[in-house]
Specification:
elongated, 704 residues
Length: 704
């Protein structure tokens, strides 16, 4: 068995190329190691270059002696071992023996599941090699790289800003016109064209400075297509100004499109072309300022910031400092920083890393929720967990694994005990059942309520009550009269008088006794009609059906006003304690303690809180809502999904809770009162609540 001191250094691959690189942040010289197999540049410092310059098929002691003879400085075995590991991990060494081949195969191979996940999260599809096209068209776009073009853009930008600001409300209002499926498709087509121009901007800028652009294609990030241009060769540019132009060229193209489209929108008349200009302008401004300049992801803003700071691999370096600082805070390991940098720059890297972690946490959760809602339930849940595990849980696991590997060193630090104590205290606090309450949207209304209507077209003759007045059952509230009814009553009375005269004459004339029966029948019919008319006249006096309070009166209700049968004239409510309706989901249902009191808190801060008593909870989930305030878009517990043809259905189990208010006489005078109900809940720990929520969601989704 060959010892570590007798082992030969692994041979480097012959096709690797070494170029002069730009100076780093400290002004030191750097070099670029180019791997043509994967079209990748690796930046190394002067020290690594000096070691690689002496590399050969020799042992580690021989390499140390050779380095000492050449540079007069010792070479530590750990430093050389780190460089060997760097070369092997980036596949820069030759794999000649079976052991090396197996190591290389183990580094590069992926399992089927890992390969599927990688392909789902990210893969590229090259479209064409643009070198000939760039050479042919570059003379046409070369003037855009001049200071004259920048001056023209500034003038046009000022003009566009002035013209659009004069109609800013119209510009913002136009967004609402495109909040449709058709608008989304138009924006999608616009983004394809704008991003194609964006990538061509990078390609022409790289071509301008002699950097090769081997391919333009489409990258799929979580199955979402994004155009890309391979400008890796631009890393070889030693001039920061040239790299800055290459990195900002795409944004510059979009800003040109944004300015020209904004000008067209301001001067064109209403029509389809103005709509096209608006879409192009809004898309370009949003993509340039909100997306491309974002330094938290590997967009143009990241590379621009890296060049401005002259800090390559900015994310990786920031993450290293962020992890280092976190470990120092938690365990006080007193490790050296990952690299020697100025204190101000170190503080920036730490803050930048933590900002990226927070940003990506919310971003990846949002992407996971979007993926979950896009696909059918089973696949959506699976992809949701893939997103969470890969982007959030996996980095946390790797860091905790690193802590475990350093466990012997961590145990020796006094601060570790403090951190461990705090951790156990947090776990214990989350495990202890704590009292709480169930809170949900609720509606307070009168226990009994009725609206009074005119039985027919009628005219108000007298209003006997006013709003808020208490009335007894049977008390008259409103007197009405119907001209048509009064006319019919007068005609019937006249007809009865005539029939009675005829009856008197028939009785006085024995020869007309045969007409007596007919006249008697007519008299009876008219009297019956009068009885009905009298009953109808009685109905025109609206009376209270129960002891109550007048809550509402029709606007302009006064004597002389006409009323239609469909118009509510008065609303009478019972002065008894009001009722409260609330809805809870299945998780909240299991937490309610029905023996505990409840409290209704109105949204109107001018109204007092009301004590309530729980009466009943429906044993089965409801299919229809008694009030739209219980929908999730009104902060209610009921979630809906569209089922087609404009219809929707409740997708989660919600239950109706009935409560009785203790004192609501004043509040219910204002109609339904929206608020929240709070019911004392059974004590549960934080962990139990999280488990209940997750369990409820899984049961709901897998049973849907």
């Amino acid at each position: 068995m060959v010892s570590a001191a007798q082992a030969l250094l692994p041979a480097l691959r012959e096709e690797l190329r070494l170029y002069d690189g730009p100076q780093d942040w400290s002004g030191a010289r750097s070099y670029l190691l180019y791997d043509p197999n994967v079209h990748r540049h690796l930046r190394i410092g002067q020290r690594a270059f000096d070691i690689l310059a002496l590399w050969g098929s020799i042992t580690i002691p021989q390499m140390q002696q050779r380095f000492l003879d050449r540079y007069g400085e010792p070479l530590q075995e750990q430093e050389l071992a780190a460089l060997v590991d760097f070369a092997q991990s980036n596949n820069l060494t030759q794999a000649s023996d079976p052991a090396s081949l197996e190591t290389l195969h183990r580094r590069t191979r992926r399992g089927l599941l890992t390969e599927i996940v990688h392909r789902y999260l990210f893969f590229r599809v090259p479209l064409f090699q643009p070198e000939k096209t760039l050479s042919a068209f570059y003379p046409l776009v070369a003037p855009l790289f001049s200071y004259l073009a920048l001056g023209i853009w500034l003038v046009l930008f000022s003009l566009a800003l002035f013209l659009v600001s004069r109609h800013w409300d119209v510009f913002l209002g136009t967004f609402l016109d495109f909040l449709t499926l058709e608008g989304a498709l138009i924006y999608g087509g616009s983004l394809i064209v704008i991003k194609a121009c964006h990538e061509l901007g990078h390609a022409f800028a790289a071509h301008r400075y002699g950097a090769k652009v081997p391919v333009i294609g489409v990258a799929f990030i979580v199955l979402f297509p994004v155009l890309y241009t391979d400008t890796t060769d631009a890393y070889r540019l030693r001039s920061r100004a040239q790299r800055f132009v290459v990195n900002t060229a795409g944004i510059a193209v979009e800003l040109w499109i944004a300015v020209l489209a904004s000008l067209l929108w301001a001067i064109l008349p209403e029509g389809p072309w103005r709509s096209v200009a608006f879409v192009a302008a809004s898309s370009s401004w949003i993509m340039s300022l909100a997306v491309n300049l974002n330094p938290f992801m590997r967009f143009d803003g990241y590379y621009i910031l890296s060049d401005v700071l002259n800090a390559p691999n900015l994310h990786q370096r920031a993450f290293a400092f962020g992890r280092w600082k976190l470990r120092e805070w938690l365990f006080d390991l007193r490790h050296r920083p990952p690299e020697p940098v100025p204190v101000a720059f170190r503080q920036f890297l730490i803050g930048f890393a933590w900002a990226i972690w927070i940003y990506r946490l919310f971003l990846f959760i949002g992407i996971a929720l979007l993926v979950y809602s896009t696909f059918f339930k089973l696949l959506g849940v699976a992809l949701f967990f893939v997103e969470i595990l890969w982007f959030i849980a996996s980095p946390v696991y790797r860091e905790v694994k690193q802590w475990y590997e350093m466990r012997h060193e961590i145990r020796r630090r006094p601060r570790s005990l403090t951190t461990l104590t705090i951790l156990f205290a947090i776990i214990a606090a989350c495990s202890v059942p704590l009292p709480g309450s169930v809170s949900s949207v609720a509606v307070l209304s009168a226990a009994r309520e009725t609206a009074l209507y005119a039985p027919r077209e009628a005219q108000v003759t007298q209003v006997l009550v006013e709003r808020g007045q208490e009335v007894a059952a049977g008390a008259p509230l409103l007197l009405l009269t119907s001209p048509e009814l009064e006319n019919a009553w007068a005609l019937a009375q006249k007809e009865l008088e005539l029939l009675l005269i005829q009856q008197h004459r028939v009785l006085a004339d024995p020869d007309r006794s045969d007409e007596r029966l007919i006249i008697d029948q007519k008299i009876e019919a008219v009297r019956t009609k009068l009885t009905g008319l009298a009953h109808a006249r009685e109905e025109l006096a609206l009376r209270a059906p129960f002891d109550g309070i007048v809550r509402e009166m029709a606007p302009g209700l006064r004597a002389g006003r006409f009323a239609a049968p469909s118009e509510s004239l008065l609303v009478l409510i019972s002065p008894e304690r009001g009722r409260i309706q609330a809805m809870v989901d299945e998780y909240q249902l299991g937490r309610i303690d029905q023996s505990q009191p409840a409290q209704f808190i109105p949204d109107d801060l001018a109204l007092d809180k009301i004590e309530a008593e729980l009466l009943e909870i429906t044993p089965a989930a409801v299919g229809e809502l008694p009030n739209p305030v219980f929908k999730s878009d009104h902060d209610g517990p009921a979630h809906f999904e569209q089922t087609g043809q404009g219809k929707s259905r409740i997708v989660n189990s919600v239950f109706l809770v009935e409560l009785q208010a203790q004192n609501t006489r004043v509040n219910t005078l204002y109609g339904e009162v929206i608020g929240r109900i709070q019911i004392e809940a059974q004590p549960r720990s934080v962990f139990s609540r999280i488990y209940g929520r997750v369990h409820m969601v899984l049961i709901r989704e897998f049973s849907a």
